[in-house]
Automatic annotation (TrEMBL), chain A:
Keywords: DNA-binding, Transcription, Transcription regulation. GO terms for molecular function: DNA binding. Residues 6-66 form the HTH tetR-type domain. Signal peptide: none annotated. Pfam families: TetR_C_13, TetR_N. Residues 29-48 bind DNA. This is TetR family transcriptional regulator. PROSITE patterns: HTH_TETR_2 (PS50977).
Length: 193, 226
């Protein structure tokens, strides 16, 4: 029967992303997905192929939306350190927002929970981390060109220092809610560049 | 925290864990019919490899060699068993860090080991396996407040140990006189948590080592490998 799709695929994937992000892969049941997307199990499976496929689509959606937002902040006007700070603060504040449920970074959660067991998930999250590293490297390079960041050091190495601090903050912010303490770590790391 | 050295020292480990465990056993009034150390380490490895939710009761029975009655009779339910294993893991790590702080020739040595630790296994296997606490934090911090509380306890204790090490490093001339040991300790922990997380994402070991060295060069330029 040629029934029109009664749902908007975009909206469904976004709802699934929010559910996986909050509960993790194993912690999300088919029932959770049905509840959050408003679809029945058969539409869900017929359209997307199953939980794992939907999870991969959710990771892709994260890359296209949340990661893209982080990258946009890195490419916004301002000095290199201002841009690095804006990107870190943006993530920190969303991590600390109680309404969001302190859910951390979805790509990182996926990497920790699933990537070691599933090569497609690993590929997907590696793309996210590699892209963020490249963007950080470009910002550090720009800062070195203007003299804001010491030019004598390897831009890639400095970018990895920023990246380690950034992801470490996102791990810590799930259990440490003192924004002042987290913020001072951002500032002391940037000051040292 | 990925503070154990090689995979072997993790798996068979902890000479130290064993001594902790033994003193614990002596305090217990009734003897167990099985080797509690052995069971807890086997269970820990299973949770570590698979994650909490993906580990089934059948998995736990298989690796422990026990029946459900004995396993849950001794440790409570799956969650209680998991929290027990996680706490033991953290205690062992903290004990090891504290012991290294006492035995290190210089305070900076401990900080160097801590930062380079996530990249210390050249095969990359340890980095990919990650840290049981960090893995648990990513999986369970929202749904299980006890895990978030355990992570907080552990991170606070590590910060205190690193602060002590950095105070020593400052006295010994390895940290700038105007650097704040507590602030540097927090920033070092944060960067190390990031390194552990990146290691888990499957980054190659050379890249991870370079990242760890960049962190060290920033926090302890006086002793960073060049």
């Amino acid at each position: 029967m040629a029934r029109p799709r009664q749902f908007d695929e975009d909206r469904v994937i976004t709802a699934a992303m929010d559910t996986f992000w909050r509960h993790g892969y194993e912690g999300t049941s088919t029932r959770d997905l049905c509840e959050s997307t408003g679809l029945g199990p058969s539409s869900l499976y017929n359209t997307f192929g199953g939980k794992r496929e939907l999870y991969l689509r959710a990771l892709e959606r994260y890359y296209e939306t949340v990661t893209a937002e982080q990258i946009a902040l890195l490419n916004a006007p301002g000095s290199a350190k201002e841009r690095l700070r804006a990107m870190m603060l943006h993530s920190l504040d969303s991590d600390l927002d109680a309404a969001e449920g302190r859910r951390g970074c979805f790509a990182m959660n996926a990497a920790v929970e699933v990537a070691a067991l599933d090569p497609d998930v690993k590929r997907s999250v590696r793309r996210t981390f590699d892209r963020v590293e490249d963007e950080l490297c470009a910002v550090v390079g720009a800062g070195q060109a203007t003299g804001e960041i010491a030019a004598g050091r390897d831009a890639r190495a400095l970018a990895r220092l920023v990246q380690s601090t950034y992801y470490g903050l996102r791990v810590l912010s799930r259990v440490q809610d003192d924004r002042t303490v987290l913020l001072s770590t951002v500032d002391s790391t940037l000051a040292a560049l | 925290m990925n503070t154990h050295g090689s995979p072997e020292s993790r798996r068979g480990a902890p000479v130290m864990a064993r001594s902790v465990q033994n003193s614990y056993d002596e305090d217990m009034a009734r003897p167990r019919k099985f080797d509690e150390d052995h069971v807890l380490l086997a269970v820990r490895d299973e949770f570590w490899d698979k994650g909490y939710a993906a580990t089934s009761l059948e998995d736990l029975l298989r690796v422990s060699g026990l029946g459900k009655g004995s396993l849950y009779g001794a440790f409570g339910d799956k969650q209680k068993l998991f929290l027990r294993v996680l706490r033991d893991y953290d205690d062992t790590n903290l004990l090891m860090l504290r012991e290294r702080l006492e035995s290190s020739a210089r305070g900076a040595d401990l900080v160097r080991e801590f930062v380079l630790g996530p990249a210390s296994d050249p095969t990359g296997a340890a980095a990919r396996r990650g840290c049981l606490l960090a893995n648990s934090n990513a999986e369970l911090a929202i749904s299980t407040p006890e895990v978030a509380a355990e992570a907080r306890r552990s991170y606070d204790a590590i910060t205190a140990i690193l602060t002590e090490a950095l105070e020593r490093a400052r006295r010994e001339g390895d940290l700038a006189p105007d650097a704040d040991p507590a602030e540097t300790a927090r920033a070092t922990l944060v960067a190390q948590l990031g390194l552990v997380a990146l290691g888990r994402t499957g980054v190659d070991i050379g890249t991870l080592t370079a990242a760890a060295q960049a962190v060290l060069a920033r926090f302890l330029p006086a002793i960073a490998p060049r």
